[in-house]
Amino acid sequence: RKEVEQDPGPFNVPEGATVAFNCTYSNSASQSFFWYRQDCRKEPKLLMSVYSSGNEDGRFTAQLNRASQYISLLIRDSKLSDSATYLCVVTTMDSSYKLIFGSGTRLLVRP
Amino acid sequence: NAGVTQTPKFQVLKTGQSMTLQCAQDMNHNSMYWYRQDPGMGLRLIYYSASEGTTDKGEVPNGYNVSRLNKREFSLRLESAAPSQTSVYFCASSGASGANVLTFGAGSRLTVL
């Protein structure tokens, strides 16, 4: 079983739609959680951190569910520019330097 | 405002050849990392350097060596390239905003024939 699992997608949605991705992690002692965005053939970039209380940044909302060991990303009012791969990232207990990346969920937003 | 710079962007090698991927950051970050990304696998950590003068193995270190030349530079060397090392390599750094927040370079696409 992978340490961090994501549905690879693609999620194909029309502009304006609301879409949500989940990511599950296997290590219950995982400490920090993030969403990164990666455009095709580009480097990953931090989208947002995921806090225990949940957090929102404009159209993006991230939630953490420690009991069920998953994090989620909700995108409201999807834009064409949201088309990308979204990577779930978890840090390990033994070292905050060892980030574990999921293989990503691909989102396609169509006109 | 360069951030993290990697060279080369593309490289084709024959099996058994050696090469070094160069990485430099101008953000005064303490920590630097090398990842590889393969289809369906996500990014996997090869080596990291938590601070100048230290290096540690990540998840997939076999076949690679690294050098933290100074605070700015962190190089990755393939001594004898193998087709299994065909991948996209990303260098990253992290600093004051936390060890978890990475800034990546643009990537180096390596093909080993």
Task: Walk me through what this model shows.
The complex is a heterodimer of chains A (111) and B (113). Chain A has 111 residues and is an all-beta fold. Chain A has no helices and eleven strands. The model of chain A has no long low-confidence stretch (mean pLDDT 92). In chain A, strands 2, 4, 5, 9, 10 and 11 form a six-stranded mixed beta sheet that branches. In chain A, strands 1-3-8-7-6 form a five-stranded antiparallel beta sheet, with no helix packed on it. In chain B, the strands form two sheets. In chain B, strands 2, 4, 5, 6, 9, 10 and 11 form a seven-stranded mixed beta sheet that branches. Chain B has a four-stranded antiparallel beta sheet with strand order 1-3-8-7, with no helix packed on it. Chain B has no helices and eleven strands. The A-B interface holds A 4, 8, 32, 34, 41-46, 49, 87, 89, 91, 96-99, 101-104 and B 31, 33, 35, 40-45, 48, 50, 56, 58-59, 90, 98-102, 104-107.
Write the layout of secondary structure elements.
The complex is a heterodimer of chains A (111) and B (113).
Chain A: E1 4-6, E2 11-14, E3 19-25, E4 33-38, E5 44-50, E6 55-57, E7 60-65, E8 70-75, E9 84-91, E10 99-101, E11 105-110
Parallel strand pairs in A: 2-11
Antiparallel strand pairs in A: 1-3, 3-8, 4-5, 4-9, 6-7, 7-8, 9-10, 9-11
Chain B: E1 4-7, E2 10-13, E3 19-25, E4 31-38, E5 42-49, E6 56-57, E7 64-68, E8 74-78, E9 87-94, E10 103-104, E11 108-112
Parallel strand pairs in B: 2-11
Antiparallel strand pairs in B: 1-3, 3-8, 4-5, 4-9, 5-6, 7-8, 9-10, 9-11
